[in-house]
Amino acid sequence: MKAVDNACFEVQEGEVFGLIGPNGAGKTTIFGCLLALTQPSAGTIKIDGMSPFDLDVKSQLGFLPERPCFNRWMTIKQFLAYHHWISGRPASERESEIKRVLALVELDIDINRRKVKEMSRGMLQRVGIAQALIGHPRIFFLDEPTSGMDPLGFILIRKLLLKCKEDGMTIVLNSHHLNEVEKVCDRIAFIRKGKIEEVANVAALSEVRQVLNVSWLASVNESTSALATAAESTGCQLLETTGETAKFAVSGNEKAADIIASLTASGLRVYASHFERRELVELFLNAPEPEGGGGGSKHANQ
Amino acid sequence: MQTSKTLFNPTVFAYTLYVKFADRRYWLLPLLLVIVPSFGIVISFVFPHAALNDEAKKMIAEVVHGYILQPTVYLLLGYIFISDGPASGKIVAESDTLALLFTRPMTRFCYVVSRYLAAVLGTSVFMFAAILLAYLVGLCYGVPYIDIGLLTIASIILNAASWCSLIIFLHSAPPLVAFLTLFTLIGCGGIGSIYSQVEQSKNVFLELLKTVSLFVDQWFGDFIPSSVDLVAMTAASAFDTYEFAIFISNIAFFLLIAAFALSCREFSYGSD
After folding, report:
1. A291 DSSP assignment
2. Is the CB of residue B8 less than 8 Å from the CB of residue B109?
3. Beta-strand runs (E) in B135-260
4. What percent of chain A is predicted at pLDDT more than 70?
5. pLDDT tens, position by position, A178-187
6. Nearest chain B residue (CA) to A191
7. B241-264 and B108-140 helices cross at what angle (nearest 10)?
8. I need a surface site. Which of A25, A38, A115, A204 has the fewest CB within 10 A?
């Protein structure tokens, strides 16, 4: 059984890249390979032209694991100092760096006394992000960053990721929260059953697959066949109709203008139209299942 | 699996050696192990079961000296230093902490060496403290025979090195491998010592047991970690070089397979 098969993608410097997929899709296995925690059975991984096992690569990484299993016995300060020290950063910067990352994750607690084991799930997530950001990493791997966080935490993560992006950090994100992914990612890879189905540009995706909602005045001449004919003639797809409104899947503004013109020409008195935002989650759920596919949890191919 | 740049990491060394002791509750078990020999001396004087003449005092000193050969004490101290389990309030610490650690710029071999050296130093310090305390208590009770000389200190360090090499292997290997190795070693140690206890007999079962025991001892006996007493070895007419070489090679063996096991180990830090 292969957990990941033929996973091939490139992430550009300064890009925010999202891996999305259902449970068991192989996202964490891909992360394991990228972080040199798992050895792929075939293929190669290069980060900055080097193997992920190279220490020069590791010194540029920050990583937030999915489950925050940190050294429970340490105080927050000890934990952050440990990761700062082990990253090989200068001791003289340690205090200021700890303060900086705690400010970034908006964690205002007594770090000298509070221990990791005393923290709530959401607080631990913030500690984990602080740990990952310590020492100004160039590449940031986040596995389910919003896991266990409250709505304020969601906003914080989004703000933080956008700031990291602004600072030129390369971010690879793995998340179930597709709406969050859509808000911060430049590109996303859809993964299902160990295969990458599609790597898409988020901006282009929302541009390409839009839903146009059209409303018209009721009249005796209207018929569903007229709507279908208009859709067919313009290369759009009729999604649903409720008598005086209809939804069309259109690919861009040109097509939207065409369908409105076609509907008007067929005698419908169109008085309103607007784009309905299609969420990433909907696109993901509507994507057709791939033929065959993997599953399981043993080997990763890249 | 990993590129190697350094053999020693001061961060891992420091955190293994003393940072967890910032929590004073963590001192309890090591301190109990430190006072055990002294407590024994006090008990033997407070509740003497026979007249405590010079011979008896020498015997007390021998028993105290025997403390530095006790595998259990080294295993307990070594475990306290090497595993984060007790500090986390668990028997075994989560390997997930290692997964995060190995995303940092440090080789796994370096981790093993640093953690091992810290554990050897820490265990030796506590063991030496135990013997020193026993020596002082012994002086108070008129027992001047407890040895705290260089050979005793060297024995403590070597024994700590021996038993900590086993602990670091058990800590580094995947849990199932560690569990099986531990019980195989205990089993081999137990079975391998039977043959010397079994008299010549016509009982087929006993003879078979003796044969198996001898086989296990001959083939696996040398792989079982042991303690050395340099005081006794140097006092003997001839220094047993073979036994000492086996002892040192066992340390190197366990350290190497610990590093190998950890290097080959794949870490899964979460569920998809």
Report:
1. S
2. no
3. none
4. 88
5. 777 878 899 9
6. B272
7. 140
8. A204
Partner residue facing A58 (CB), from B104, B267, B271: B104
How much is the mean pLDDT over chain A? 84
CA–CA distance, B101 with A87 (Å, rounded to integer): 10
Which residues 6+ apart lie within 8 Å of B110 measured at CB?
A: B4, B5, B6, B7, B8, B9, B12
Q: How far is residue A128's CA from residue A6's CA, in Å, rounded to a whole number? A: 31
Q: What is d(CA A301, CA A195) in angstroms, rounded to the nearest whole number?
A: 10
Q: How far is CA B158 from the centre of its chain?
A: 9
In the chain, the amino acid numbered B95 is S
- The answer to whether residues B82 and B167 touch, using CB atoms and an 8 Å cutoff, is yes
Helix or strand (DSSP H, E) at A54: none
- Rounded Cα distance, B172 and B33, in Å: 25
3-state SS class at A134: coil
Residue ranges of the domains in chain B? 10-172+225-264
Instruction: Give the number of other CB atoms < 10 A from CB of residue B37.
Output: 28
Does A168 or B269 have the greater pLDDT score? A168
By CB atoms closer than 10 A (0-12, 13-18, 19+), residue A132 is buried
**Residue of A29, A38, A45, A58 to mutate, interface with B, max B Cβ within 10 Å:** A58
Answer yes or no: are the C-beta atoms of A5 and A301 closer than 8 Å.
yes
Please check whether residue B30 is in contact with residue B17, taking contact to mean a CB–CB distance below 8 angstroms: no
CATH architecture of A210-277: 2-Layer Sandwich (3.30)
Assess whether pLDDT exceeds 60 at residue A132.
yes
Q: Given the structure tokens 């410097």, which residue do they identify?
A: A13
Positive or negative, the CA dihedral B112, B113, B115, B120 is: positive
User: Domain-by-domain residue ranges, chain A?
Assistant: 2-204+292-300, 210-277
ipTM: 0.80
- The residue whose two tokens read 């891992």 is B12
- Backbone phi and psi for residue A194, each to the nearest 5 degrees, phi listed first: 80, 0
Q: Is a pLDDT exceeding 60 seen at residue A264?
A: yes
Chain B segment 104-143 residues within 8 A of A by beta carbon are 104-107
Q: Which amino acid is at B168?
A: I
pTM for the full model? Answer: 0.80
Q: Would you list the DSSP string of A185-198?
A: -SEEEEEETTEEEE
% of chain A exceeding 90 in pLDDT: 38
In CATH, which superfamily holds the domain spanning A2-204+292-300?
Answer: P-loop containing nucleotide triphosphate hydrolases (3.40.50.300)
Angstrom distance (rounded) from CA A206 to CA A218: 31
